Amino acid sequence: MSDYLVLSGILVVVVGFALRLNPLLVVTLAALATGWLADLGIIEVISAFGAAFNDNRYISVTWIILPVIGLLERYGLQQRARALIEGVRGATMGRLLLLYLGFRQLTAALGMKDIGGHPQTVRPLVAPMAEAAAEKTHGKLDEDDRQKVLGMSAATDNVGLFFGEDIFFAIASILLIQGVFESYGYPLTPLQLSVWAIPTAICAFLIHGGRLLAFDRRLGRARK
Amino acid sequence: MITLEWLYVLAGIIFAIWSFLSLRDTTNGKRLGNAAFWGLLSGSFFFGGQLSDFANGLLVLALVGIAGAGLIGRSDPPTTSPAERTDFSGQLGNRLFIPALIIPLTAVIGTILYNYTPFGETGLFEERRETLILFGIGVLLALGTCMVWLKPPVLAPVEEGRRLMDSIGWAAVLPQMLAALGGVFALAGVGDVIGQIAGGVIPDENVFVAVLIFCLGMVFFTMIMGNAFAAFPVMAAAIGIPVLVVEFGGNPAIIGAIGMLAGFCGTLMTPMAANFNIVPAALLELKDQYGVIRMQVWTAIPLLACNILLIYFLAF
Questions:
Q1: What is the tens place of the pLDDT at every residue in B31-62?
Q2: Looking at the structure, do residues A126 and A154 belong to the same domain, yes or no?
Q3: How close, in Å, is residue A224 to chain B by CA atoms?
Q4: Do A135 and A173 lie in a common domain?
Q5: What does the domain layout of chain B look like in residue ranges?
Q6: Which residue of A70, A139, B2, B242 has the fewest CB atoms within a 10 Å radius of its CB?
């Protein structure tokens, strides 16, 4: 029974997020609760948390991109992205995001997963383009719809990345699968694994792509 | 050799400038909180490697305290007006995209060259960190290009960066914090307990139910941990290998590859995957912090069903 007590950290996380408490606070409480219930001393838990935080600094280092993006926005990058889309005949939000989904999946499948991303492409380029394309076909969007278009732009980047990257054989998740199976006596090559990411990638393109086009149609209907 | 440490120093400098500029920014009512928050993060980049684990832990608690007490706020550094931006966009044209493209292209092309040409034998970059280091080089190249070409005021890049950073706020360190929580969970053996529970509910003789529990377990555990990497070894050890492969004779490559992708469906539905779900909501200034997840749920659920059926029909 006492084993199950370490799961209370999970409970803290679920309840904390559901109550929309500050996520940093939720995560810290979860870490402290988990460590305490696993019979670690307070110093030990804080040290473990600090060490793990320090080991993962490489995650936050990517914010050094912000001065470049901010500077380009100062000189009208978002406006340029909008103007570019407004000039393309037949450009709709659904088609634009569908194209971006395919582009993101294909480039990720070729190992170029760093070509997109939220600070690099979604905020300065994809989201303003999607908004401009939606306004071009449907007229001015109300705030709720505008928020949905922006949210869908970010969602499309995620779906494209997640269900493209595993087709590339030299990616961390494929190497992890290989490592786990090897340790249980099933030697597999990365290529053997990565080809089986293709069926799901096709399903992801069809499902999310279909949703993008349907979302565009729904925006149009709401306006009539 | 260029190591990750160089990048940490660069980040430390940028965060230190943000902290200093925040302190001077009297238009922001929460300037002290902002200055302290970015200052601590700067300290972590400069000195994290030298500090003891406990000191790093106290630094994290201080960051959490500042954010949790609501002491950081958005700032509004002087910038160009929307009308000026439209004018600039007209004058500068599509060339504006070039600096933005320098960063991913440097990272991607550099990584390819480094891994597949003799360039890699120079050992110029720290092992396995070449993409991140090349990303940093790309940022500097793009910044240099912008400064020479656009000739902005000297402080403009850091002030514009600070505007974006403050709009993201505490969410900026959430991904790193969640990775740290994963470390604590691992130490406490959370994964093993979940694996035991999942392994205990498998009925005999039913392949479909076993596949279903394997995939749902991947999704559930991925949602808790915020990434499928932590979930995969646990679920593979509990169900994937002993039940699906050994007992029912499934194809290990298919079970492994698609099982991981079932976990990715969980990543689309959890605030714990902050990098993908919470940070962009902040970056796009959405009113609902779950605004991105909301748009992903109805892709994730049908796709999960596809993954379950794919494993069931392809692997057996």
A1: 999 999 999 999 999 999 999 999 999 999 99
A2: yes
A3: 23
A4: yes
A5: 82-154, 189-315
A6: A139
CB contact under 8 A, A123 and B284: yes
Please state, in angstroms and rounded to a whole number, the distance separating the CA atoms of residues B209 and B221. Answer: 18
Q: What is the pTM of this model?
A: 0.89
pLDDT (tens digit per residue) in A50-94:
999 999 898 899 899 999 999 999 999 999 999 988 888 889 999
Cβ atoms of residues B33 and B166 within 8 Å: no
Confidence of residue A2 (pLDDT cuts 50, 70, 90): low
CB contact (8 A) between residue B104 and residue A116: yes
Q: Do A119 and B89 touch (CB under 8 A)?
A: no
Sign of the four-CA dihedral B261, A166, A103, A117:
positive
> Do A125 and A211 sit in the same domain of this protein?
yes
- Is A98 in contact with A209 (CB distance < 8 Å)? yes
Measured CA to CA, the distance from residue A152 to residue B117 in angstroms comes to 39
C-beta contacts of B93-96 below 8 A and 24+ residues apart: B93/A80, B94/A80, B94/A84, B96/A72, B96/A75, B96/A76, B96/A77, B96/A80
Residue numbers of the domain that contains A118: 64-222
Are both A205 and A146 inside the same structural domain?
Answer: yes
Q: Are residues A138 and A212 in the same domain?
A: yes
Same structural domain for residues A95 and A187? yes
Residue ranges of A 130-189 with Cβ closer than 8 A to chain B: 147-148, 150-155, 157-159, 162-163, 166, 172-174, 176-178, 180-181, 184, 186, 188
- Provide the pLDDT for residue A85: 87
> Taking CA atoms, what residue in B is nearest to A165?
B261
Residues A147/A153, Cβ–Cβ less than 8 Å:
no
* Domains held by chain A: number: 2
Rounded Cα–Cα distance for residues A66 and B165 (Å): 7
ipTM at complex level: 0.90
